[in-house]
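Fig. S4 source data, part A: sequence.
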Amino acid sequence: MYQWRKFEFFEEKYAGKCAIPDDVTGNVECCSSGRGKVVVGCDDGTVNLLDRGLKFNYGFQAHSSSVLFVQQLKQRNFLVTIGEDEQISPQLSAMCLKVFDLDKMQAEGSSTTSPECVQILRIFTNQFPEAKITSFLVLEEAPPILFIAIGLDNGCIYCIKGDIARERITRFKLEVENSEKSHSSSITGLGFRVDGHSRQLFSVTQSSVSLFSLQEQPPRRQTLDQIGSSVNSVTMSDRSLIIGRPEAVYFYEVDGRGPCWAFEGEKKFLGWFRGYLLCVIADQRNGKNTFNIYDLKNRLIAQSLVVKEVSQMLCEWGNIILIMADKSALCIGEKDMESKLDMLFKKNLYTVAINLVQSQQADAAATSEVLRKYGDHLYGKQDYDEAMAQYIQTIGHLEPSYVIQKFLDAQRIYNLTNYLEKLHERGLASKDHTTLLLNCYTKLKDVEKLNVFIKSEDGVGEHKFDVETAIRVCRAANYHEHAMYVAKKSGRHEWYLKILLEDLGRFDEALVYISSLEPSQAGLTVEEYGKILIEHKPAETIEILMRLCIMEGESLKEGTSGSTYLLSMLPSPVDFLNIFIHRPESLMDFLEKYINKVKDSSAQVEIHNTLLELYISNDLSFPSLSQSDASQNDVSYRERTSSRAGVSNGKLKYGYQEKETLNVEKDRLERRQKGLALLKSAWPSEMEHPLYDVDLAIILCEMNTFKEGLLYIYEKMKLYKEVIACYMQAHDHEGLIACCKKLGDSDQGGDQSLWADLLKYFGELGEDCSKEVKEVLSYIERDDILPPIVVLQTLARNQCLTLSVIKDYIARKLEQESEMIEEDRHSIDKYQEETLAMRKEIEDLRTNARIFQLSKCTACTFTLDLPAVHFMCMHSFHQRCLGDNEKECPECAPEYRSVLETKRSLEQNANDQDCFFQKVKSSKDGFSVIAEYFGKGVVSKTRNRSNS
């Protein structure tokens, strides 16, 4: 053991000026520590309690003669002592055990206090004969139960168990050795070992080491060794018994002797402190005592001091306290970890430092810092492999960039690779670390390690590296298969397809992969990469889109509510329109297939709008593709015809262009037919609004001069004036008149004003259109649409028309007007005669008396007698026949009421301006309506009423 290094990991406290206070007058016989106090028992029977720094707190008289043993309990503030008191009788021993409650103090005079003694027990009785006490130990079980073991010089152990304060105890005796057979049977040491509910008691004599199992009744004794030890050279570690002998220090477990340490010299005292073994060893050669503190785990001597004669050794306040025979004391405390490490770093003892921090269970950050310094030391010595081994152990605590920057040199790429691999294994690598590691693999061209790194992960989503970074680096280094493997395993479909399509051009494989995905994921990938697929594999891509957008099977054909719900959950074709940006003919094909399959899609309007734009557009070519194709054709053409003449080349080129023009025109006409069919089919007669955007359809038709579609939309919207405007713009006179015949018939819901617009058009045409005007005039005359004066004024604007065009029309109209005038004159004469007759009758009523000559009642036809009632209408009635109604004639009253009702209705209608203007607007001759209102006196009365 002389080879163990010695260090100064401990230091003296209180500047070496520590001693037992003068207040302690007797010689120190025993001591104990706990609960922040040091308890000292003296030969004068006093017990003294010392505070930190061995400062005197108080003392009291515990026994009358001498205190042999003392122990401070940990769980309760009790003090257990063994000492000699006055002998009351020869039969009773003077040796007794006392228990003091240090929390309860009782006054003794005016200046001193002492704790309350809660129990006094006589140790020796008739059943337990008296012997010399050599050792003493108390085990605290569940409070208030105590287990007290008292070792004697006769090889026996007296045990007291129970509630000592209440004297609810049991006593029993354990025999270790028979004193008659052996002169070395004195108990020199005791030790309790607690393991769960198991209680075991070690006992040491000078000639044996024994173990008692206290949970058994009676306790079973087991001999662990045939060699013992002397007093004070026995102690307990956390779980083991430690015995010091001149040749070595031995450890004992419950099953026998354990490890031993060959520390030579007489062991005067043994102790255990925070994992350190404390030994006071007497050197026989120079007669000096040495106090050593052994770190058994790290195999070093943490402190070594030459001390005087030691009488007691104990530990309290985190310090080791040695009490000397001359009452001086030595307090030794452990230095902090930083100080110990600095000491080791100065001596470059990094291995010892690492072992030290690990053995003392220092935090991971402190351990990492030691490893870092050790790594830096090795790195400075150019021992890069060993330095990296230390740096790897700091992963998780040391910033990786600190290590990485040291090994960026190409010559140390292997060490850097090793470090980065460990980072990834522990899941602490960032994207940059993944990039750096993959770059190391690619620079080293170590495909095997790259395969292990990429393909050794188990399960999807369990990679210990950033997936996207790995894919990007492998792709950049042309390791496409590795990148695809990672992308596929991690479910990064977009990366997998990007490599397949953009780097490798394997379009068929990409389509198969998309087909294998879930519908939702497949839809997302098609949205992103559909442009490339449509450009190279249009038919196959459209087939995939159809599977995504429609629901196969009978449920779609049945049209049930369940199928409608499922259909609404499917992606819409509108979501994929952007992928056809350079392939409109493929888009047209896709949408046509879709609407043939699905009749009630929620996106019908958008789909029809898109199809209408494709159908109606004049040009459906792609400049980029057509130019590239043309350039390729031109190159091959020049190669084939390089030896031919320029004239021949020109003829072939012209023929090719003419053929292309014919094909384009044919395609345009076919699309126009489809567009017109869609306009009609998407606006059934029973629907008020079409399944497309009407405004968009009109704009498309006007922009692309699609006359047929425009006419159909205007006609469906009943915009008849816009319909004839189309014919007017095209100067299609025949079509214009045919349109007016169809749309201008009021009997079929048409608009007769179209003929007026048509006549105005011909009047402003500025060319000879006599034939058309005559035909228009025939319809105007037939339906009496316009007055002749308006017709004349309208046609007078056209300088190319002669009077002969309208001569017959004017003649017929004049004849009709003459007949109407004649009829009106007869009516006027008739109304004048009736008016004169009425006025004469009124005057007669006012000036002349009426003679009533009726002899019978108009109601009952009996002879008229008094009382009778006569009315001015020349009707007479019995008064009894009239009842209560004597103010009006029952015969004439209904007619009179109807006249009054009509009059009130006319007056009410006079106030209804909307009704008046509606009649004026809807009438063929608005003037006749106004004349009728004046004739009935409605207008004039209204005016007079307003004036009044």
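Fig. S4 source data, part B ends here. The chain is about 45% helix and 20% strand.
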